Amino acid sequence: MAIAETTYLYALAGLSVSFVGFSTLVIVFRQSAGGRLSSYDSYFVLSFMQAGFIVTAGALLPPLFALYGCPRARCSGSRAP
Which residues have CB under 8 Å from 10's CB, separation 6+? Predict the structure, then answer.
């Protein structure tokens, strides 16, 4: 039982993971170039990375629930047509 929004949710999860990966690369390149991260910088980047992983998990949960047969009205919080 696939839900109609699965393509959108997979694209959102992929975009979110790409954003987190890009943020990680920026940090690594900055530190390897000799730049130091202040405590504010590390907090700022950490909060963006956490938000990215939360969006990824949130985007992947509805298709997972649909895979296990959870009714759409119960899993997504919307009414089934």
Answer: 59, 60, 63
Residue 37: CB atoms within 10 Å: 13
SS (H, E, C) the chain: CCCCCHHHHHHHHHHHHHHHHHHHHHHHHHHHCCCCCCHHHHHHHHHHHHHHHHHHHHHHHHHHHHHCCCCHHHHHCCCCC
Give 43-75 pLDDT, tens digit per residue.
888 888 899 999 999 888 888 887 887 776 666
Distance CA 13, CA 20 (A): 11
Q: How distant, in Å, are the alpha carbons of 2, 5, 40, 60, 76 from that of 17?
A: 22, 18, 23, 12, 22
Percent of the chain with pLDDT over 90: 14
